[in-house]
Write a structure and sequence with these properties.
The protein contains 2 helices and no strands. The chain is mainly alpha-helical and about 50 residues long.
Length: about 50
């Protein structure tokens, strides 16, 4: 859910910065993927540290 919100916010801010629709969509997609990757990495690290 957080990754979707970050992606949407990034796309919105890119459009406010006068980026074209394809450029804004690209920025939103990259932000979504990066947030999803970070969340997965943190989840994995916490699971490893707690031994679950």
């Amino acid at each position: 859910m957080v990754a979707a919100l970050v992606g949407a916010a990034t796309g919105y801010l890119a459009r406010r910065d006068h980026a074209t629709y394809p450029a804004a969509l690209t920025r939103a997609t990259v932000a979504f993927a990066a947030t999803l990757t970070l969340a997965a990495t943190l989840t994995s690290a916490l699971a490893t540290l707690t031994g679950s």
